[in-house]
Design a protein that fits this description.
This protein has 497 residues and is mainly alpha-helical. The protein has two domains: 3-204 and 247-495, SecY subunit domain (Preprotein translocase SecY subunit); 205-246, no CATH class. The protein contains 21 helices and seven strands. The chain is globular and about 75 Å long.
Length: 497
């Protein structure tokens, strides 16, 4: 299907699509917005998101039903029962669908045409809106906020309207953060949600009922409480380190271990010396190096993988509780509640792509363990290589940008061939390692999913690089901006702004 046909159809609607005004170009500057203003608008975006994450939906009914997405909330930047219930899911899904259609050449875009580029972005935003509406209706109709018969038509409509309005707000905040802030808003939301979950799991002062009596929810607070108040110190320490009904010290240590591993791997890179064509040796001595990171595609493979798994989980669980006797539904997945507000798959396809809940489960069900590990490692590697072709970071794309900027790799006449020696290997190996870290984190029981941790670390690191790059430019740096896109660049490609 030609892209121009679709873009012509949506052109009359482009004037009705809400969007943030593009900042005006600053003469002599790479960035249209100063560094201080970018930080300011990033903070504003974050405050609005955090506020919306604390505002409960009006009209919901109390439910003891377990949350099927409890373990994925941080990665989806969502908060159950609030305006941010849907999080970034519609934006991610819309971007993924558009990328897939483009890769399959069902939608062909001439990126040199301003009209087609604007049309593509319009279609992406319309898709995000339609997915938001569809997901809002599905969430309310599934009984997540109480039986539909108890809600009534008025509350049903009101809940859908709130979710849709919040979804539009997320799209605008993402647009605001990208155009005026530090990068893609959805990456900021993921990082914030992950950090919030980690801090709460460590220092939460809430008390919970356990078989041993009331304990504090926060792992560190509970550890101190057990040491000070427990008559049986050994039993108290064992509970603090290994309890299964809330966060424990082992979970915190696993989270710290994953954090350190990601930071360590982040430092591995191959730097290729670059120079401007035709420039004198005196000028070329100021030129920089193009870094090819080991984690070249950042965490995008895991984001895509996580989006696919979360969609499969929601569909499977909804179908199971509506049509539990259907054999096809059972093949997709069977579910049961598993304490602590979790609903987990115990059979079917989704069971085999879900992580073992503990090291004991890893040993007791080796088929599940082998399939899960193979799926995580294989899919993250394949998705990394596939995204390399879609993201504009393939050797041919980098070589083309170098050519347009009059840059080449020092000592080599064929820039693309030289890049091809490193980039595909880094993309595949990086995807494999990120998949492996995710598996290790899940088995060790990190506080938030390893995927969320990886996303948070990568986002914070990319913000640091972005600040250093623009600070260098504004202070008179001679050759800024030759690094890889990083997390924010990948998320921009995903949301296709």
């Amino acid at each position: 299907m030609g892209g121009s046909i679709i873009f012509d159809l949506v052109q009359p609607l482009q004037g009705f699509i809400p969007e943030i005004e593009q900042p005006k170009f600053r003469p002599g500057k790479t960035n249209a917005v100063s560094l201080s203003d970018r930080i300011y608008w990033t903070v504003v975006t974050l405050l609005i998101y955090l506020t919306a994450s604390q505002i409960p939906l009006y009209g919901i009914r109390h439910s003891n039903d377990a949350d099927p997405l409890a373990a994925m909330r941080a990665m989806l930047a969502s908060s159950r029962g609030t305006l941010m219930e849907l999080g970034i899911t519609p934006v991610i899904n819309a971007g993924w669908i558009m990328q897939l259609l483009t890769a399959m050449q069902l939608v062909v875009v001439d990126w040199n045409s301003d009209k087609q580029r604007a049309g593509y972005h319009a279609v992406n935003k319309i898709s995000s809106f339609l997915l938001t509406v569809g997901m809002a209706v599905a969430y309310v109709a599934s009984g997540m906020y109480g039986p539909v018969s108890e809600l009534g038509f008025g509350n049903f409509t009101l809940l859908v309207a709130q979710l849709v309005a919040a979804g539009v707000l997320v799209m605008l905040l993402d647009d605001l953060c990208e155009k005026w802030g530090m990068g893609a808003g959805i990456s900021l939301f993921i990082a914030t949600s992950s950090c919030q979950a980690i801090v709460w799991s460590v220092f939460s002062p809430r008390t919970i009922d356990t078989p041993s009596g009331q304990q504090y929810q926060g792992a560190a607070v509970n550890l101190v409480s057990q040491l000070l108040t427990s008559d049986q110190k050994i039993t108290g320490l064992k509970s603090a380190f290994y309890r299964r009904y809330s966060y424990n010290v082992t979970n915190i240590l696993a989270t710290v271990a994953i954090f350190i591993a990601v930071i360590y791997l982040q430092g591995f890179r191959k730097e290729l010396p670059i120079e401007r064509k035709g420039a004198s040796k005196a000028m070329n001595q100021y030129n920089g190096r193009y870094p090819i990171k080991l984690l070249y595609m950042s965490t995008m493979p895991i984001i895509l993988q996580g989006a696919l798994i979360s969609n499969a989980f929601v569909i499977s669980r909804t179908l199971y509780y509506k049509f539990s006797g259907n054999p096809l539904v059972a093949m997709l997945g069977t579910w049961q509640n598993y304490g602590g507000g979790y609903s987990v798959p115990v059979g079917g396809l989704v069971y085999y792509i879900s992580p073992p809940r503990s090291l004991t489960d890893l040993v007791m069900d080796p088929i599940h363990s082998v399939v899960y590990i193979a799926f995580m490692l294989g899919s993250s590697t394949l998705l990394s290589l596939q995204w390399l072709e879609l993201s504009g970071q393939a050797p041919r794309d980098i070589a083309k940008r170098f050519q347009n900027q009059g840059i080449k790799i020092r000592g080599f006449s064929d820039t693309r061939k030289r890049l091809n020696e490193y980039i595909p290997v880094a993309a595949a190996l990086g995807g494999f390692l990120i998949g492996g870290l995710t598996v290790v984190g899940e088995l060790m029981g990190s506080v938030v999913s390893s995927t969320s941790m990886l996303l948070a670390v990568q986002t914070v690191h990319s913000y640091y690089e972005e600040i250093m790059k623009q600070a260098q430019e504004e202070n008179g740096g001679m050759f800024p901006g030759m690094g890889g896109k990083g997390m924010n660049g990948m998320m921009k490609m995903m949301s296709m702004k």
